[in-house]
Amino acid sequence: MTLHRPIVVTGTDTGVGKTVFTALLTHHLRQQADNVKVMKPFCSGERSDVEILKCAAASHAGLSDINPFFFEKPLAPLVAARNISTKITLKDCLERILEFVQGEGETLIEGAGGLLSPLGESFDLLDLVRELKSQVILVAPNRVGVINQVLLNIRELARAEVNDVCVILMGVKDPDVSAASNAVVIRELSGKSKVFELPWLGEEPVARPSLKKSYGRCEKVLAAIVPHP
Questions:
Q1: pTM, 2 dp
Q2: Which entry of 37, 40, 87, 91 is annotated as an active-site residue?
């Protein structure tokens, strides 16, 4: 994977491990360079994910800079914003992102929900990916059904002419029989996409005391995704 273009981390659904992976990749990039920026532009319900990312990046930025669009109700950002009579445009979002990530260094952006989850008025994460000319990492749980979910996302990205896609299958606590073959089948059917697997890392794998231990278990995989110079 080529650096110095924003990396957008999205998922096949909410709660599939996007924040865990983004925190691990942030920690990995920090082993190579001090200037690593991470954002989660949209967050609903609570900001625990944002606090995890801030810690992983050792960032001095405020939560409202890392996460400029926060809503208390756990709803899709578009719906949450409308509930408080707020409209967020693609232009608004891009301005906040570009303001935060200006300058040298690597940039990771974690999406909210999935690729087509509505973020604001008439735009979703796919629109952000196109505007930012981002690389995309697609995170999915390694369980039955994931092949269909991953291929649908890859097909939608390809329709938008986004072909620089990396797939991460996150280990689950109680893997089913499909977990042994999902990566092989996705590699076969997805064309150019690279597919990597991470093990089950526990209930809170990237909380402050656990991050380094979890990273140690994943370092070789992360180095294959983003090699050390």
A1: 0.94
A2: 40
Mean pLDDT score across all residues of the chain: 93
pLDDT category, 227, cuts 50, 70, 90?
A: confident
Q: Say if CB 160 and CB 127 are below 8 A apart.
A: no
Alpha carbon 153 to its chain's center = 14
Residue 216 to residue 81: CA distance in whole angstroms:
39
Let me know: does 53 contact 30? Beta carbons within 8 Å.
no
Residue 75, token pair as written in the block: 């709803």
91 included as an active-site residue? no
Mapped onto helix, strand or coil, the DSSP state of residue 71 is strand
Query: Do residues 121 and 112 touch, judged by C-beta distance below 8 A?
Result: no
Phi, psi of 36, rounded to the nearest 5 degrees: -120, 120
**Residues with Cβ within 8 Å of residue 218, at least 6 apart in sequence:** 24, 198, 199, 201
Q: In Å, what is the CA distance from 13 to each residue of 77, 139, 149, 151, 152?
A: 14, 9, 9, 13, 12
